[in-house]
Each structure stands twice: as structure tokens, then as C-alpha cells.
Amino acid sequence: MPVLIDLLWLLAGLTALYFGADWLVGGASSLAVKFGISPLVVGLTVVAFGTSAPELFVSIGFNQGGYPDMALGNVIGSNICNIGLVLGVSAFICHLSIKSQLLIRDLPILMIATLVFGWMLMNGMISRVEGIILFVAVLAYTFFQLVLAKKGDAPAVMAEFEQEINPEAAQKEPVWKLSALILVGLVGLYFGAQWLERGGVSIAVRMGVPEAVISLTLIAFSTSVPELATSVIASLKREGDIIVGNVIGSCIFNLLCVIGVTAMIKPIATTQIEMADLIVMGGFTALLIPIMASRRKISRWEGGLLLAGYAGYCAFLYVDRVA
Question: Cα-flanking dihedrals φ and ψ of residue 269, to 5°?
Fold first, then answer.
């Protein structure tokens, strides 16, 4: 029964995070458009940062609460889950087409961010200075995306933005209503992170499982459920290019924005995250290069390979650190 209660806290936290992020992004995006900010700018800033809000609030909460391993495990596990599980399941449903810009531009940025993050963590800590460097990098990445979008990627960005926000409807909404939506979203994210932390830490203590393992698997999977659900729906609609772009963008923001902001608030020191976890995250990222370069798509058998790799990593964690 106590474990069931912990799982309910976990579920409540996940639900609050999902709706909190949705309300925050919707309210902030609509308010920005209402005040005359270009939907293109909003799509590449407010929407991009807002979709990383659940991971950000969770990692900040864990680190502030004295669980830095869970803060790092959330990000590392989320990136592994995004590539192994989300892309794997999506590709298993339908072939995922790859745009040239993802292969030439965004994937190399993700690879560099992964290597830099791994190098920073070699001494067992992400300092405030390193957090600032990572956050400045995500600001530069966002500015870079904005410049390139204005030169030629605007139609794709606008199409994706209009799936989330209706600019015409946003103009009709009163400012007080949008402001209230933002406030409720922030409250949902705050309490969602608290509840997820409460459930996750309790499960780790009750089952005698290292905190990092819970965060690398259960917490990371929980915060990736919205992306998984969205990607499955997009796969059924044969929108494979959007799926791959969202996964790569999410991984970049996890490393640069989530870790950057969390470390800026309080340095992150780890004792449970091991080199194997960083190698697996880097390995999954590197594996995308030959997979995406071959015929510019991710096939079903390649999706199966990613799924098998993710299942193998979870099994390794259980055998190596739990059993």
C-alpha cells in the first residue's frame, strides 16, 4: 500500500507537470502574440523553453531538495529515453524522414553539447560558472535558430507553431485570462515537481534502490511520457520529420538549459551518476549519426535497434546497481 501511495504521488506530479507546461506555453505564447511579438520568435523562444519546463522544475526541485544525483539522472535519463524509447517507438510505427538541416546543423550541436556536458561532469560537479556557460550556449543556439529561420526555415517553424497556438484566437483573449493561465501553469509546474520528487524519493527509499537509478529510469520516463504520447500520434499521422526535430531539440535544451539553470541556482554535485551513464547517453547520440545519414530516414528495424538498446540499458542498471 505505501508503494501504491508513492506511485499516486508520482502520477499526480506527472499530471500537474503536463498541464502546467501546457498552460504556461499556451498562455505565454498567446500573450506574446497579442502584444505584437512575431509568432516565429514566439515559436523559437517561448514554446521551445516552455516545453522543457517540466524537466527544469523537476531538476531544480531535486537539486534544491538535496538530491543532485536525481537532478542529473533526470536529464541524462530523459535524453536516453527520448532517443531510445521515443524515437524507437515512433520509428517502429512508421519510417521517420530526416530533414537535411537536422543532420547538418542540429545533430552536430547535440553531439557537441553532449561531449561538453560529459567533460564538465568528469570531476563529479557542474559548477555555477559551468551552468552559466551552458545557459549562454542555449541562448546562442536559440538566436542562431532565429536567424536561420528568418532566412528560410520560417514556414516549417510557423506550421509547427500554429499546431500549438492559433494566433487569431490569441488576439481575442483578454490579458487577464492569459496572465491567469500563465500563473496557474507555473503553480502546476511547482507542485508537480514537488509531488514527483516526493513519490520518486519515497520509492527509492522503500525499495532500497539508488536515487540515481530511480531518476535515470522511472523519473526520466515519467517526464518523457508527454513527448512519447505526442510522438506516437505524430507517427500515426506520418509526421516523422517533426518527431525527430522535437526529440533533438528537447535533448539540446535538457543539457544546456535545464542543467545550466539548475547549476546556476545551486552547483550540482554527484556521487551516483557513473561514467557508464554518460557513455550510454553519448553512445545513443552518436548512433543517430549513421542511422540518420543512411537514406535520410529512421527505418523500423533501426527503431527496433534503439528500443533494444534502451531496454538493455534499463536491464543493465537493474543488474549492476539494484540486484
Answer: -110, 135
CA 204/CA 100 separation, integer angstroms: 43
Query: What is the rounded distance in angstroms from the CA atom of residue 38 to the CA atom of residue 41?
Result: 5
Q: Report CA dihedral (168, 172, 173, 176) to the nearest 10 degrees.
A: 130
| Per-residue pLDDT of the chain in tens (323 residues, 90 and over written 9) | 677 888 888 888 888 888 887 787 778 777 777 776 666 566 656 766 777 788 888 899 889 989 999 999 999 999 999 999 999 998 888 888 887 777 888 899 999 999 999 999 999 999 999 999 999 999 998 888 777 766 655 555 555 555 556 666 666 778 778 788 888 888 888 888 888 878 878 877 777 788 888 889 888 888 887 777 777 777 777 766 677 887 888 899 999 999 999 999 999 998 889 999 999 999 999 999 998 887 778 888 999 999 999 999 999 998 888 76
- Say which CATH class 2-322 falls into: mainly alpha
Contacts of 74 (CB under 8 A, 6+ apart): 55, 58, 59, 62, 215, 219, 220, 223
Is there a contact between 111 and 281 (Cβ–Cβ < 8 Å)? no
Contact predicate 257/54, CB 8 Å: no
Residue identified by cell 516526493 is: 198
pTM listed for this prediction:
0.87
- Which sign, positive or negative, has the C-alpha torsion 148, 150, 155, 160? positive
Closest C-alpha to 218, from 196, 244, 248: 196
2-34 vs 175-207: helix axis angle to the nearest 10?
Answer: 150
What grid cell was written down for 223? 517526464
Q: Which of 287, 304, 293, 264 is nearest to 71 (CA)?
A: 264
